[in-house]
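Methods, example record. To illustrate the input and output format used throughout this study, we show the complete record for MARVEL domain-containing protein. The sequence lines were provided to the predictor; the line carrying structure tokens was produced by it.
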Amino acid sequence: SASEMLETLVACVILPFISNPYLYMDHPLLVSCVAVYSICFILGIMTILLNLANYENWLPISSSMFHLVLSLLSVLLYIGALVLWPLYQFDEKFGGQPERSRDVSCQHRLTNYVCIWDQRLAVAILTAINLLIYVADLVYWAHHVSVGTEDQPGNS
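The corresponding predicted structure is encoded as:
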């Protein structure tokens, strides 16, 4: 579906920002956020590939229920990332850097240079955006399952 493509696209945008291990290697909880982004990205790619392969006949559950479970899992994982990433990146009590001006890497005046603080902020914003998309997807699939449209042919 379009939302799965959008979720995966946002995850593709997150991946380059988290390619700098300096952003998360000091904190196991930040490493767990990177795991969330990676797991949800892989699940998104797998779902897109399964959709292309017309997988409905292979699953022991309806495709709507499958999408509902995946959406719920992704929402729960992203809620954790949305709390932990900003907390450990921007709150001084947790070793974060609350102000861009205090980040040494942001004091360079190089063209086309994204400093570490900018990377942290980009990931936080993209996490919130992707969570909203996943929540919308969850509501959509919950509605599909609740009204029973998953049993009707042609709906997926």
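Annotations derived from this record:
The longest helix spans residues 116-146.
The chain has one domain: 2-151.
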